[in-house]
Design brief:
elongated; disordered N terminus
Length: 126
Amino acid sequence: MPDCPRDPAIRVLMMPRDTNAHGTIFGGVILSHIDQAGAVAAIRAGCRKVVTVTMDAVEFHQPVYVGDLVSYYAEVTRVGRTSITVRVTVSAERREGGDAVDVTGADVTYVHVNAEGRPIPVPDNL
């Protein structure tokens, strides 16, 4: 979980439709939410349209279960000429209560693109 309290980019209640064959939440669902949370941060930073280029350093530390409330915290960590990198940290509040647990995180890089999908410079104010 992040060191300082802040609002998550997104928060999702995990549902039975999100499970894998083992009954826990499918990792691909979590990765999809990581991608969305990172895009939210990039858009809020001023990049109107972004596409995902890479997702690095993903390691799952804890399983996620049906009924968990999962928070995705996103922070811009690097700005390039046409790209922006966002660190997304994921924590889960168990439905039984207790403290939130660290689940995973990833560094996601996006490219800022125009309407035709071509890279364009990231706004100067970043």
